[in-house]
C-alpha cells in the first residue's frame, strides 16, 4: 500500500484525528451558514460572521428618499379558515375593471411589492401579509405550510373580490407557490374568476436541489444537513434573534449578496429588505422551511395554462434559479418568459420597471383575451 494510503497509527493517528476534527468543524460551520441562508431566504444567517460592508452605505443613493414601507391602502382583517387574522390592504376603487392580488415571498411582507403598488394604475390592488409574516397573525406549526397559504389566498379572494369580478394573481417566490397551491385546491377558479397569473422568482418544485451558487460538490454536502441545521436554529430562536438584531452590518452584506445581483443596488432598499427579514422570527423561518423543500406543484401548471401567464426570473438568483422558471415556461408554452440576466432573487425591487412592464403586458393580454371571448 502506498504511503499516502497507509492507516495512521500512534501519534500520527492522533494528529490525523485532530485534523479531521478541525475539518469537520469547518464543514459544519459552512453547512450551518449556507443552510441558514437558504432557510431565511438569506435572513437567518446574520449572526454567523462579521463581514465588512465597505462603503456600500455611503454611495450615492437615488432611492434614499423612497417611502419604503409607507404606502398604505385601506386596511382589512380577514380570518383564515383556522381563525388566524390575515392583514390585507386594498388600493383603488371597487369599480375598477380588474383586481390584482399580490402575494409576497418567504420572510418578506406585502411591502416587498412597493414599486408595483406605487406604479400600477387603472386597476384595483389587493396585497396581504402571509401568515406569520408582517402584520398577520402568528400561525401554529402544523398550519405553516404552502397548502395552508393556498387556502389563505382563497379566503382573501372571497373577502376582497365580488363573485365573478376578474382577478390577476401575482406571486413572488413563496407567493408563487401559494398561487400553485390554490390552483391545486380550486382549479375551477382559473379561467373563470382568475384570468391571469404572474410568477416571479418562483418554482414548481425541487428546491431541495438548489445550490445557492455553490460548487456542486459543496452543495451536495449541504443539502442532507440543511433541515437539521434549520430545526436547530428554530430551537435556539431567542439566541439567534438577539444575534440578528445585534449584527445589522452582517445582515446588510448577506442580503445584498443573496438577494440582489447589482452591486450598486440602493443601500436604502437593502436596508428596507433587511428590516422585513429581521422582523420575521427565526421560529417562523424554521417552521416554513420544510414546506418549501417539499413543494412539488407540477400538476398545478396544467391549471395555470388556462389563463395568460408571465414568468420572470433572475439570472443570478441563488434561491430559485432561472432554470426553475424555464421549467415553468416549458409546461406553459403560451406564457411569456422574461429572464433578467443581471438580477437576483428580489426582482420586483431590483428591477421594478421590468416587472411592472411585464405585468402591464399581462393586463393587456387579459383584456384582449376577454374581448375575444365576449365577441
Write up this protein.
The protein has 375 residues and is α/β, with parallel strands linked by helices. It has two domains: 11-57 and 208-289, no CATH class; 71-205 and 295-374, Alpha/Beta hydrolase fold, catalytic domain (Rossmann fold, 3-Layer(aba) Sandwich), CATH 3.40.50.1820. 46% of the residues lie in helices and 13% in strands. The protein contains 13 helices and eight strands. It has helices at 10-39, 114-119, 146-160, 174-185, 216-235, 237-246, 248-259, 267-278, 282-293, 300-304, 322-331, 347-350, 352-374; strands at 74-79, 85-91, 99-103, 124-128, 167-172, 194-200, 309-314, 336-340. An eight-stranded mixed sheet has the order 1-2-4-3-5-6-7-8, with helices on both faces. Strand 5, helix 4 (174-185) and strand 6 form a beta-alpha-beta unit. Helix 1 crosses helix 5 (216-235). The longest helix has 30 residues, at 10-39. The radius of gyration is 22 Å and the shape is globular. The termini are far apart. Mean pLDDT is 80; it is low at 1-57 and 211-223.
| SSE pattern, N- to C-terminal | HEEEHEHEHEHHHHHHEHEHH
Strand content: 5-15%
- Overall radius of gyration: 22 Å
The beta-strand count equals 8
Q: How far do the termini sit from each other?
A: 83 Å
Determine and state the CATH class of the largest domain: Alpha Beta
Structure, briefly:
The protein has two domains: 11-57 and 208-289, no CATH class; 71-205 and 295-374, Alpha/Beta hydrolase fold, catalytic domain (Rossmann fold). The protein has 375 residues and is an alpha/beta fold.
